[in-house]
């Protein structure tokens, strides 16, 4: 039975599929907020890779396509940030995606706006979306791209800060970081992640 399932997955092209998941909150009112940079990168990848986000299942919006002979899934969890794992893990389980083939993109308060940091594993760093994924997986060993959004000033609560738009003087740096994040994801399709890290962490 197991061999038959593997043959079916291979026939359908899902064996060894890579999942690129961008974190954010669904709905128009959250679209331009700091917390939604992960969604923005997925939208850019959807355009550049011609993979429409035309499927809604597993509490997420996603699309599957083929790039340079590799099956790629682009995913935006629709669970709201704090329950991101409720979407990502069921999709991975259904398509038998290996943990090594998961890449998560999300906002990071500890990096200056526009700064990127790629890592192969690590803690949630206080990010609730990452906490949810780690809780579901039971470990921290998955790839991620952190996009800097900076920390709030003048004592503004974090939960309010992340749900506001970027200041005008930050927008160019953010746009550039979104583009570089998308490029890093595209590089990962047929380049070892360590090489991608060395290039985009520089």
Helix content range: 25-40%
Structural class: alpha/beta
Distance between the termini: 47 Å
Please report the total strand number as a whole number: 7
- Integer average pLDDT: 93
Query: Radius of gyration over alpha carbons?
Result: 16 Å
Low-pLDDT regions: none
Order of helices and strands: HEHEEEHEEHEHHH
Strands side by side in the biggest sheet: 2-3-4-1-5-7-6
Please, how many domains? 1
Largest sheet report = 7 strands, mixed
CATH class: Alpha Beta
Annotated CATH homologous superfamily: Peptidyl-tRNA hydrolase
Q: Top keywords for this entry?
A:
7 strands; 202 residues; Rossmann fold
Question: Would you mind describing this structure in some detail?
Answer:
This protein has helices at 2-12, 37-48, 85-94, 128-137, 158-161, 171-188, 193-200, and strands at 18-22, 55-57, 60-67, 70-77, 102-108, 116-119, 143-148. The chain starts with a helix and ends with a helix. It has seven helices and seven strands. It has a seven-stranded mixed β-sheet, with helices on both faces. α2 (37-48) packs across α6, α3 runs parallel beside α4 (128-137) and α6 packs antiparallel against α7. It is α/β, with parallel strands linked by helices and 202 residues long.
How is this structure best summarized?
The chain has 202 residues and is α/β, with parallel strands linked by helices. The protein has helices at residues 2-12, 37-48, 85-94, 128-137, 158-161, 171-188, 193-200; strands spanning 18-22, 55-57, 60-67, 70-77, 102-108, 116-119, 143-148.
């Amino acid at each position: 039975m197991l061999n038959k399932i593997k043959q079916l997955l291979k026939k359908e092209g899902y064996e060894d599929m890579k999942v690129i998941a961008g974190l954010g909150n669904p709905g128009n009112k959250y679209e331009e907020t700091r917390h939604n940079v992960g969604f923005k990168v997925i939208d850019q990848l959807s355009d550049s890779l011609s993979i429409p986000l035309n499927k809604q299942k597993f509490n997420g919006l996603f699309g599957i396509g083929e790039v340079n002979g590799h099956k790629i899934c682009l995913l935006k969890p629709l669970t709201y940030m704090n329950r991101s794992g409720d979407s990502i893990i069921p999709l991975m389980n259904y398509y038998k995606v290996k943990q090594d083939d998961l890449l998560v993109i999300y906002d990071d308060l500890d990096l200056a706006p526009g700064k990127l940091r790629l890592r192969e594993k690590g803690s949630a760093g206080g990010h609730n979306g990452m906490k949810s994924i780690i809780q579901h997986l039971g470990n921290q060993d998955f790839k991620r791209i952190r996009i800097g959004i900076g920390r709030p000033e003048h004592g503004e609560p974090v939960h309010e800060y992340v749900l506001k738009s970027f200041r005008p003087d930050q927008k160019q740096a953010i746009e550039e970081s979104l583009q570089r994040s998308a490029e890093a994801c595209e590089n990962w399709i047929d380049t070892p992640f360590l090489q991608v890290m060395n290039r985009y962490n520089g």
